[in-house]
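Q: I'm writing a short explainer about Diacylglycerol kinase family protein for a general audience and would like to include a description of its predicted shape. Could you first generate the structure from this sequence?
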Amino acid sequence: MIDFRKVLRSFRFAGQGIIDLFRFENNAKVHLLVAILIIITGFVLHLSRTEWAIILVQIGLVWAAEAFNTAIEKLCDFVSPGRHPQIKAIKDLSSGAVLILAITAVTVGIIILGGRLIDTLSITN
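A: Of course. Here's the predicted structure. Afterward I'll give you a sentence or two in plain language.
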């Protein structure tokens, strides 16, 4: 039997995690601002459903990667508050994963939004 109270409580905890991510993490705030600008641009350029799906998946992946990175960094800081070469390597790898996804998302954005912009400018000229 499903305990819906536990499910709702889990969603509440997860929601608090999302709020904390965007409230306290500077990089997440940057990703949020960029996502808002991309979404506005998408509306202006009249993206197709498929293009929207691809763009939104990219935004979600970057946010999820940022959340994992933040969790890993906080865990590292808790386990080893001082400087340690292994902790530094773990943090660098984690932030590198976010960078890989961010570069991929930017590339996808350029392909989709840039292509749409070129198409739009070609039609008006």
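A: For your explainer, you could say: The mean pLDDT is 95.
Q: Perfect, that's easy to follow.
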